[in-house]
Design goal:
Elements lengths: L5 E4 L4 H12 L4 E5 L8 E2 L5 H11 L3 E4 L6 H6 L1 H22 L2 E7 L21 H16 L4 E5 L2 E2 L8 H10 L4 E4 L3 E2 L2 E2 H13 L4 E4 L6 E2 H11 L7 E4 L19 H7 L6 H14 L5
Parallel strand pairs: 1-2, 1-4, 2-3, 4-5, 5-6, 6-11, 7-10, 8-13
Antiparallel strand pairs: 9-12
Helix pairs in contact: 1-7, 2-4, 4-5
Amino acid sequence: MALGKTLVVGASGLVGKALMRVLKSAHTDAVGTYARFPGAGLEALDITSSTQVRACVERHRPATIFLTAALTHVDYCEDHPDEAFAINVDGPRAVAEAARALDAQVVFYSTEYVFDGKAGPYDEEDPPSPLSVYGQSKLAAERAICDIVENALILRTTVLFGWDSNSTNFAMQVYHKVRSQERMTIPMDQFGNPTLAEYLAEMSLALAQLGVRGIVNVVGKDLMARSEFARALVKLYGGSPDLVVPVPTESLKQKAPRPLRGGLRTEKLERIVGSKAMALDDALKRLGKQRDGAGSMI
């Protein structure tokens, strides 16, 4: 199915930027919004204002809405639950209600943090049990959207990374540490699937065009500890593996609890699109090309 006009809510973030690039490459008519970080051609939108959301959706009348906007700092959410739920639940609910009035398709981005990390990797049918305020807010948003919009597509993902000098995603954090030759303490007992933002955007477009509904995990193929992923990034950047110091999560004294045995299964995604999920080696090759294209060197 053709997507028609699309609206990317949260187009200034890592995933939103990737979506805008992919949609442009597909010659799709796309409009993007931002909340805090302006971008060329993007419109300001406070998704906690149902009035602003309704006006934006009515003005552009999109056939498909990609909803990436979220408060994702897990420890900040733990200390600011009201703000987290306002942005992560009330905002998506407002978008879904505006979309329903136009019968627009909604593609919402969720997380492996809806699980407790005791028995991962998880498939789409496993019962959620979030540990943190962040995870609770994303699960509440999933349910709110599905209650409002019949054709909602929920994409769960994790350990997102990509080359973006304005981003603090894991790949950029490691890059700056390597550049300054700083050692980094990285959890050795948190497991997840590193997922290239560009790959998530490409799969988002493919699934939306197929008219898929319900929950689909969209992540990289490889499940690994954060420390292992960090070492792979350090190698890509030409740094010493000794810069990575594996530590237990407990020693980091993080405010919000983390799912440890996490990760998401990819069989459903692979069955729908007819190809294997992206391997980390391939994702890192693309990350290296993104870095070189940006003119950034170690």
